[in-house]
Amino acid sequence: MEAMTREPRTRPLAGPSAAKTAPLASAASIGYLDGVAATEPARAYKAGLLAALGLLPGHRVLDVGCGPATDLPALADAVGTQGEVVGVDRDPAMVAAARERCAGSPNIRVLEGDAERLPLDPASVDRARADRVLMHVADPAAALAELHRVVRPGGLLTLAEPDWDTLAVDHPDLAIARAFTGYVAARANRNPAVGRRLPRLAAAAGFALRAVRNEAVVLTDFVAAETILGIRRVTQRAVAAGAFDQRAAESWLEYLTTCEVFFATVSFITVVAEA
Fold first, then answer.
1. Given Cys at both, which of 29, 38, 141, 215 links 7, Cβ 3.0 to 4.6 Å?
2. Does 95 score more than 80 pLDDT?
């Protein structure tokens, strides 16, 4: 998200990765990822996808775009001491943070690598996940082909991505709201509409679809929306990009931060697939 995206790398939602595209992780971007993961919408979809993986003791599971190890401990608990969790991230600073956080977990290994060129052998993992990663990569189809290469036949994959073209924020001035959401859809990520493409891309890579869901994110208070969507930050980027002027931005933020009833929503697509 920057609404369930990650902080851009050139980054925006979140959010939230291997093949993230730009400078090294900062304490702020790590804090952003941690903050999003702690929200109720994130906890809910992550728990559902963890259950869908059907992890068993002894499984080897891959987390592509593991960031600062946000989800690695839960995966490690599920596979037990006889299993192994492999986290992969392109950003050396994310890798360093993940390794530091997981130093006491011998069944977690964190590697530096790209989603489109995974540093793993063919058919070498039982399960894999990519959570808010494909919106950042140069070629989502290539990343899914790599995932199909490394997941053993019969193994499971879970995917989760927002569809930023569906972002809607309630505001009395529809033109300003459309300018904001249009900026997010057009500029916030490399692949802003990848959520709707997940089923087609996964099938084209050779996966059999088991479940496809729209876990739409609904936000009814500004604090949660700011945590997940980074509204203030994205608004200033939109001004800098010429999506609207500073006066409109101030009016936009004044209403959103003081209104009695806040509402925002975006489609969030999850896929469970079998290799």
1. 29
2. yes
Nearest of 130, 182, 118 to residue 159 by alpha carbon = 130
Residues 6+ apart with CB under 8 A from 188: 2, 5, 8, 12, 13, 164, 234
Identity (one letter) of the amino acid at 217? V
Beta strands in 33-120 (DSSP E): 60-64, 84-89, 108-112
Q: How far apart are CA 96 and CA 268, in angstroms?
A: 29
Average pLDDT of the segment spanning 34-45: 92
Both tokens of 59, joined, read 């499984």
Residue 92 in any domain: the answer is: yes
Assigned domain for 143 exists:
yes
Within-domain flag for 205: yes
Q: Note whether residue 42 is domain-resident.
A: yes
CA 125 and chain centroid, separation: 21
Q: Which residues pair with 214 in a beta bridge?
A: 269
The domain spanning residue 52 has which CATH number?
Answer: 3.40.50.150
Beta bridge partners of 212: 271
Number of structural domains in the chain:
1
pTM above 0.85, yes or no: yes
